[in-house]
Design a protein that fits this description.
The chain has about 150 residues and is an alpha+beta fold. The protein has one domain. Strands 1-2-3-5-4 form a five-stranded antiparallel sheet. A hairpin with a 6-residue loop joins strand 2 and strand 3. Helix 1 packs across helix 2. The longest helix is centred in the N-terminal third of the chain and has 45 residues. It starts with a helix and ends with a strand.
Length: about 150
């Protein structure tokens, strides 16, 4: 009897963790969609991109080469078109705006320009981000890393 209860408890914990990961993934995708909309609104309103360096949407130094100063500068600029309350990026994920070159898997060659990088726990594929065009993906340490062009 005790063994059966232990097995059922283990199954429940594993299922619960999967549900939590899917909920965080959904929160991440929703937040990144909002940031992409904000970046496009900024481009349409100001005629420029909000920042040209690697900048994490959550205000931290979430990625190599990023800094909190640059991230906060991006958030300040985005608030001018998105309002004071910016979407929350759930931990342990990263989501950032970058300007540079990265492989363009669907079209071949290299994409150079503004793109968003985001991570989520789904090991299968990258979830789409609104009007951003999928560029490439990788999987490491239990996180799927995706890049999508903001055109």
């Amino acid at each position: 009897m005790v063994v059966v209860i232990a097995i059922l408890a283990a199954i429940t914990i594993v299922s619960f963790n999967g549900i939590q990961n899917r909920a965080k993934d959904a929160q991440l995708i929703s937040a990144v969609n909002e940031y992409v909309k904000g970046i496009k609104a900024y481009q349409n309103t100001k005629g420029a991109i909000p920042y040209t360096a690697i900048a994490c949407f959550d205000g931290t130094a979430c990625w190599g080469g990023s800094s909190t100063i640059v991230a906060e500068a991006l958030r300040t600029e985005l608030r001018t078109v998105m309002g004071q309350s910016l979407p929350t990026i759930p931990t342990p994920y990263a989501a950032l705006l970058a300007s540079g070159s990265t492989p363009d898997t669907p079209n071949g060659g290299t994409y150079t320009g503004l793109y968003v990088l985001y991570q989520h726990s789904d090991s299968g594929s990258c979830q789409s981000i609104g009007s951003a065009r999928y560029l490439n993906t990788g999987f490491s340490s239990g996180l799927r890393t995706c890049r999508a062009a903001i055109e």
